[in-house]
From TrEMBL, chain A:
InterPro entries: EboA_dom (IPR047715). This is Sugar phosphate isomerase. It comes from Actinacidiphila bryophytorum. It comes from the Bacteria.
UniProtKB/TrEMBL annotation, chain B:
It comes from the Bacteria. InterPro entries: Metal_Hydrolase (IPR032466), TatD-like (IPR001130), UCP005295 (IPR012022). Keywords: Hydrolase, Metal-binding. This is Hydrolase TatD. Pfam families: TatD_DNase (PF01026). Belongs to the metallo-dependent hydrolases superfamily. GO terms for molecular function: hydrolase activity, acting on ester bonds; metal ion binding.
Amino acid sequence: MTAGQLADLLDGRVADPDWLAGAVDRVARDPDALAALFPAAGRRCGRGPLSGTAPRSETGGTDPAGWTVDDAARVLLLTALPLSGAALAEQVEAVYRYGSADEKRAVLRALPLLDIGAGGVEILHDAIRTNDTRLVAAAVGPYARHLDAAMWRQAVLKCVFMDIPLTAVDGLDRRADGELGRMLGDLADERRAAGRTMPADADILLALIGDLPPEG
Amino acid sequence: MRIFDPHIHMTSRTTDDYERMAAAGVRALVEPAFWLGQPRTNAGAFTDYFDSLIGWEPFRAAQFGIRHHCTIGLNPKEANDPRCREVLGLLPRYLAKDGVVAVGELGYDSMTPEEDEVFAAQLALAVEHELPALVHTPHRDKHRGTLRTLDVVKESGIDAGMVVVDHLNEVTVGSVAGSGCWMGFSIYPGTKMSPDRMAAVLREYGPERMLVNSAADWGRSDPLLTLATGQAMLAAGFGDDDVDRVLWRNPVEFYAQSGRLDLSATDGQPAAFAGNSIARGGN
């Protein structure tokens, strides 16, 4: 997913396309303009589904299926910033810090598209500490490759705990290991002892990785 | 009965309240930024609180199918603490947010010069951001405080129709009725209005520009007193349409002036968690 592809997907779906084009121009010239333009994207562009192909919960990462129009508009605004590296990370962090939940979700979705390397990883840590399913789900997308193994496993386990579908987790097939299997197994034991069940997708994952050797 | 509570502090309420409110017909509400009982001592405590009003609390409300909006402002009591004054400079960032439908709560507590200054500065912010203003009237010296409030509103140049003067009663309603401002009433045990007295005020002044709220917060209060007021209105001979106007259409009309009121059905995501506790937060 690139900014160009996002712009194509937004074509014809934005309530006020002139506003968005003007906002992208302004941010490209004056990064400080972002503070007022970023929150306004919902009411100027609309909040409907972007593609209508899949509900948000069934997709993760930067797959636009399940995104909303304001998500994509905000990601475009972030990619228009004429900054990179630490300066860009600082600006993105400020937008996230003062963002509403919708704005925070858009920042999380934008991270893999921004030239900041691992500079946004603290933002992921913050999102994973919240109890907001929208933010936790957005935090386990492709940018989560920057999380270390322990934090990544905790994030996946938290998805299970919060009933966030595991399709939100990017790279689950590559990264799921024996230690995650052990953690899921323990959770399943705890649930069974309490007479509760696991989400179906977590049971499937446990069946796939439960027998892998745990981390040495 | 569909209910829009235009003033309630959900931060201080439990999920039991959300559940009962939804069952009683509350579909939307506005949570004004105010003091929390325990005084705050720095600007960061305010920004964390504001973040909650535009982040966590709307998420919590959505679990129960209730639309949550808020107002943002520096309240008069804490405006007197110089350590909190820095908050004024942080307000524009929050006044740009989607869920923020007014500046507030503003107004007077002890009617100090500091309160004068902060009140006027925030009315100017409301004009600049094209937002309505929610103005609290003081608990002590209320009648004088209400008159002074109306003077300050007039001097600020804000359109009277963009202002609600809140916590009114039989003594203070008359002066606000003639000002063009909206009239807010908190149905709150002990210190403010009761459902039957509210019905009597509506009988005398009519339903125009009238807002009824529970103002439920961390004190002994009841989020269902909006419903009780609707029932008291029916018992007093008002029709269903009058009740709907006071408890739904009036607050919608007032806050829609922000251009940011979003009353569309809550999105599918929270509904997917119905039946679970609060989306089973990770605790």
